[in-house]
Design goal:
- By secondary structure, this protein is mainly beta.
- The protein folds into 7 domains: 28-128, Cadherins (Immunoglobulin-like); 136-240, Cadherins (Immunoglobulin-like); 248-346, Immunoglobulin-like; 355-466, Immunoglobulin-like, CATH 2.60.40; 474-570, Cadherins (Immunoglobulin-like); 578-680, Immunoglobulin-like (Sandwich), CATH 2.60.40; 689-802, no CATH class.
- It is 3% helix and 41% strand.
- The chain is built from 2 helices and 62 strands.
- The strands form 19 sheets. A 5-stranded antiparallel sheet has the order 32-31-34-38-36, with no helix packed on it.
- It is flat.
- This is Photoreceptor cadherin.
């Protein structure tokens, strides 16, 4: 029985172990709290100024069974995706720009899976503020109407700006960008704009003020730095005119006439007065105070004076009428007033033309002297002109007009009855310019309007202008470019600059100065503008070839302009080529050139370009020289020490030649050097006598067997020999090219080396070898082998079988 119970317990334990082994638990995230950047992103916060591409969080979890896990991150349908997760590492990267002011919270679905079980959690990510928003003014534009009698310190407006940021970055303060003479001030916290204490407004002086207000936030962090943001707006303040100026009559003195044909009710004259407060003028009320003798009446609204009786009943030929013009207040009360006199004459028929009068009687020419460019609207008070027609009524009505330069001046009034004081007003100030002409001439015409006779009068108006310093000196060019040969003597002329000032007298006199880097080597004549080198200066193109500096033209009152001068020092051929030494020792390996080199210190071509030539040589006709590079090499027929020794009849060979280096300047300079050259032959290629042709398949060279493969690689021997001949090793890849014609080998520009010669056509026969210095060519039957470089000097033995 006990044995059976033990068996049942054992079976139970085995079943429990099997059941546990088959369990599969879901993975889960670590919850490390909102301040962590490692976990499930729950309540994670990120600043809105975080750059795109930043690693902002690491999703982190585990699987109870230890299975590999992968992470996921999604957003609700229709919402912008701000983050991306790397499934294996859990690295979360920002992929969209954040803006807290548009969205301060993002809902994210994060997931973790072990391949069989997937856990999804919804978490909220909070966007924290950065100071990225400037204050925004409300209720733009700011246009304010303020009465001119507003008391100092009075509040006139409240400016308001809103900053969408939070904290100190969302607080706003205000200040004005104004001069010390500004008439307004603003409270930095409330934005209330006031008339500055101690200041008053004056419509007649400044009817409109423009004030710039700045709204500044309290600053805050943005992309790791403290940032303060501002905005500006313009406040337009219109000053409303107040009634603080009396009225005044316009066009005084007034003259009126009664004609023989006049009847009761005839218009004699119309007076006109206007309120001195032009912004908000009061209407006028006209009345006669004295002098009418009961024969005149006046329209209280229009100011028109009329006759109340027949002219034949008049007792006087001249009447002096006192007329009063009063402002009419809001309740029709009469306020400030002005008084003038209207002189009325009784005249006869139309038997008088209009006549111009000066201070001393009739006058046909009026002349005045004044400064140029008076402001537009200014009255030319130098003219004292009265025009009169002694007739009565319509016979004395005429028009005035000016004939001359168009729209420069205008005459007031344009229509006259009997008599008027002529006023000439500036209309176009640019036309009154001394530089255009020192004198302006006009014709002043008075022509009757309604008479059959159309009597008229003419007066000459002459304006003599006085000059002002209204122009600055102006150069004929913004810059001057010149060239000067080097080694020019001190004091040599470089270039002449010219500036013109059309003003007269001392204002038109121009003085020249120079300044700037390098200007100390030059001098300028203060009156003529001639620039020359300093007496002690000698310009050298090899030291400095270009200069630029400024010239200044200034009038007597300090008005000036600038121009820039560019000077190029022309290189002259003043240096000869120079060798390192007059005697040069060189060693030449047959087939390899040696090089001589000279230096010319001139700055430019062709003065520093050198050509080389052989003046003399011993032995003669043994050397060639490259005229451009100075490379000296043996004549093509000298290919071995045997030939050299046959020429010199000596075992040791040292030949000598004189090389000339000549520049290409004009005149040309040259120098020579003696070059002693020790002729020798490279080691490693023993001479072979009575050699027999080899039995290799291609019958190329004696004792040489070439093993050639398509695409031969670098460092592969391209021939082997049983006898002690040269070992040729390609330093760069050898290329085997089949079926290359001999004509393609003509691109090889240097003479062949080794034991071979060219035929009369200049092409290469099969079995030839040729070198360009950088590439080596072998022709083997129909194949060409090209090597980039062959180690050691190349020597081919003299007995060759083809």
């Amino acid at each position: 029985m006990k044995k059976e119970k033990k068996t049942h317990a054992l079976l139970f334990l085995l079943l429990l172990h099997f059941t546990l082994g088959q369990s599969d638990y879901a993975p889960y995230f670590y919850d490390n709290g909102p301040s962590s950047t490692n976990g499930n992103m729950a309540l994670f916060s990120i600043s809105e100024d975080t750059p795109i591409g930043t690693l902002i969080y690491i999703l982190n979890g585990t699987d109870p069974e230890g299975d590999p896990i992968r992470y996921g991150l999604t957003f609700e349908k229709g919402f912008k995706e701000y983050f991306r997760v790397e499934p294996k590492s859990g690295n979360v990267t920002l992929i969209q720009e954040l803006d807290r002011e548009k969205q301060d919270e993002i809902s994210v679905l994060v997931s973790i899976t072990d391949g069989r079980n997937k856990v999804v959690e919804t978490v909220r990510v909070f966007i924290t503020d950065a100071n990225d928003e400037p204050p925004e003014f409300q209720n733009l534009p700011f246009i304010i109407d303020v009465p001119e009698d507003t008391s100092p310190g009075t509040s006139i407006y409240r400016v308001q700006a809103v900053d969408k940021d939070m904290g100190s970055g969302g607080s706003v303060s205000y200040y004005l960008q104004t001069s010390p003479l500004a008439k307004f001030t603003i409270d930095g916290h409330s934005g209330i704009l006031r008339v500055k204490p101690g200041e008053t407004l004056d419509y007649e002086t400044t009817p409109t003020h423009f004030v710039t207000v700045v709204a500044k936030d309290g600053g805050g962090k943005y992309k790791g730095k403290h940032q303060v943001m501002t905005s500006t707006a313009t406040i337009t303040i219109n000053v409303i005119d107040a009634q603080d100026m009396p009225p005044s009559f316009v066009g005084t003195p007034y003259f009126g006439y009664i004609y023989e044909v006049s009847v009761p009710g005839s218009e004699i004259f119309t007076v006109y007065a206007k309120d001195g407060d032009q912004g908000n003028p009061n209407p006028m009320h006209y009345s006669i105070m004295d002098g009418s003798d009961g024969v005149f009446d006046i329209n209280s609204t229009s100011g028109c004076i009329t006759l109340t009786t027949h002219p034949s009943l008049l007792k006087n030929e001249l009447y002096e009428i006192k007329v009063k013009a009063s402002e009419v207040g809001p309740n029709n009360q009469l306020l400030d007033y002005d008084v003038t006199t209207v002189t009325v004459r009784v005249v006869d028929l139309n038997n008088h033309p209009p006549t111009f009068y000066g201070e001393n009687g009739p006058q046909s020419k009026f002349e005045v002297t004044m400064y140029e460019h008076p402001p537009a609207g200014e009255i030319l008070r130098g003219f004292k002109i009265t025009v009169n027609d002694s007739d009565q009524g319509a016979n004395a009505k005429f028009k005035l007009r000016l004939v001359g330069p168009s729209r420069v001046l205008r005459v007031v009034p344009q229509t006259v009855l009997n008599e008027a004081q002529v006023t000439i007003i500036v209309e176009d100030t640019s036309g009154i310019d001394y530089e255009k002409g020192p004198t302006l001439s006009f014709k002043l015409l008075a022509v009757e309007i309604d008479t059959p006779e159309r009597f008229s009068a003419t007066a000459d108006i002459v304006i003599n202008l006085l000059d002002t310093n209204d122009n600055i000196p102006t150069f004929t060019s913004e810059y001057y470019i010149t060239r000067v040969p080097e080694n020019s003597p001190g004091g040599s002329s470089v270039v002449s600059v010219t500036a013109n000032d059309p003003d007269s007298g001392p204002w038109g006199e121009v003085k020249y100065t120079i300044y700037g880097s390098g200007s100390d080597l030059f001098a300028i004549h203060p009156m003529s503008g001639l620039i020359s080198t300093q007496p002690w200066t000698s310009l050298d193109a090899e030291v400095r070839s270009k200069y630029n500096f400024y010239v200044k033209a200034e009038d007597s009152e300090g008005k000036y302009s600038l121009a820039e001068v560019f000077v190029t020092v022309l290189d002259m051929n003043d240096h000869s080529p120079i060798f390192d030494d007059k005697l040069l020792e060189k060693t030449m390996i047959i087939g390899t050139p040696v090089k001589v080199e000279a230096v010319d210190e001139d700055a430019e071509s062709p003065n520093n370009v050198i050509e080389y030539s052989i003046m003399t040589a011993d032995p003669d006709n043994a050397f060639d020289i490259n005229a451009n590079t100075g490379e000296i090499q043996l004549k093509p027929y000298i290919k071995s020490m045997e030939i050299v020794q046959n020429i010199t009849k000596q075992k040791d060979c040292k030949w000598s030649l004189v090389v000339q280096a000549r520049d290409r300047g004009s005149p040309s300079f040259s120098t020579t050097a003696v070059v002693n050259i020790d002729i020798t032959e490279a080691e490693g290629c023993p001479r072979q006598e009575n050699l027999q042709p080899c039995t290799c398949p291609h019958q190329i060279f004696p004792h040489m067997t070439f093993t050639l493969r398509q695409g031969q690689h670098a460092n592969t021997r391209i021939h082997e020999s049983d006898a002690p001949t040269c070992q040729f090793i390609c330093e760069t890849s050898a290329v085997l090219r089949p079926h290359v014609s001999e004509q393609q080998m003509l691109n090889v520009t240097e003479a062949g080396t080794g034991c071979f010669t060219q035929d009369n056509m200049g092409s290469l026969r099969k079995g030839y070898y040729k070198s360009t210095g950088t590439h080596h060519y072998f022709i083997v039957n129909e194949f060409v082998v090209i090597c980039g470089q062959i180690s050691g000097a190349i020597r081919l033995c003299p007995n060759v079988a083809f």
